[in-house]
Every structure is written in C-alpha cells, then in structure tokens.
C-alpha cells in the first residue's frame, strides 16, 4: 500500500525562519484522491513543496512517510524514484531543453541504466497521451514551457504525469488560470490514471476542478494546519460559505 502519511509536520522558510506548516496531519491511502482547500497564504503550496524536498523550506518537526519509508531523509530524485510526482503551480520555462527529450530523460532516470525505454515505445505512449490531452503535435519539439500559454503549461504537467505514471501525484493548483475547456481536459488526464495503484493530492482554491475529479476526501487547511476533513460534499459548503467558520476553528485551536 503506497500510502502517504504525514504526522505533525512543522516547516519554516529557511531564509527568514518564519513557520508556515504548524503541525500538519494527513493520510492519503493508495487508490484515493484527496483535495486540500483553504484561503491564500495558508501553507498549501508549502506543504506540497516540503513533501517533495524543495530546499527553501526546512522541516523542524514531524514526519513524512510514503510506502513506509521516511522521505524527509531522501533527496528529491530518490523521492521521485519512489513514485512521487509534483505538478507545479508555476512550471519553469527552460530554454534549450526539448520538451520530448526532457520527458524521456525523466522516464529513463527512474529505470535501470541498462534498460531505457525503447524509442518507439516512448513515441507511441507520448502520442497517445498527447491525443488524450488534445495537445498540438509540435508541442514536444518546443523548448520546455517556453512560449507556452498558461493552459499549455498545465496540460504539459499532466502529460509528464501520464508519461511517468507515478504512484502518488501532488498537483498544486493545476486548475489555476484554466478556461472551462482546458479544465475539462486536465481533469480527464487525472481521471485517466485513477485506479487502485494511484493516489493523488489536489491542491486547489476552487470547487470547480472537483466537479470533474471527485475526491474521496477534502481537507481544509488554515494557518498551517488541517482543521477539517470530510467527503466530497464539503466542496459545496466551502463554495457557498467560504472559510470563515474554519478560520474561527483554527483561532480557537480546535480541529473538527
């Protein structure tokens, strides 16, 4: 069972010492899709980046385990080798790096050195996934994210996910800036991987993504802590009433 288990996680910004994560407890079992929602500045992106080992943050307390292993002791590439994937909120533009070459290199980095993915098999999979995401043929020949629209960047993150086939995908605001057609396509990509050997953690501000990708659980995060966990019906409440009730719960120091 490739369960993600986070226990009492605290993390600070290294440069300033400001504490952002203030005791996060969260479990995402394999085969389930969970969503984290919450107001701006509450630590959602920090959580995703801390799980994957972004160097701007330092863990001061707590644990993060995946498949029973302590991932906090592992470098980023070893976390990826375990089957963890991060779809970034702001994908980087990298001049001179061909998009298809980048994806193939990432796949082969997770395979034994003497067993790279055959080129024809790679091309076939790439074409199938591009068709699923309704991406133009030339996007693989362009430099990574350079000149991509916002929607193309987000679809390219999902393309990487489909090609890498991770056991756990953490998608940080994969829906931000998307029109309704692009949102539908991105959701189709996520649902394509849904199954008993795949889990995902969706970080979002809005319930519209969850109309297309129904989560097993929704967690409300306020001021560096999870203060509420419930089923998919919680999205409708948050859309109608906002986060004020849960901000008050956090101020009172009570989780529900």
From TrEMBL:
Coiled coil: none annotated. The keyword Nucleotide-binding applies. The keyword ATP-binding applies. Keywords: ATP-binding, Nucleotide-binding. The gene is sufC. Residues 4-248 form the ABC transporter domain. It comes from Limosilactobacillus allomucosae. Pfam families: ABC_tran (PF00005). This is Fe-S cluster assembly ATPase SufC. Belongs to the ABC transporter superfamily. Ycf16 family. InterPro entries: AAA+_ATPase, ABC_transporter-like_ATP-bd, ABC_transporter-like_CS, FeS-cluster_ATPase_SufC, P-loop_NTPase.
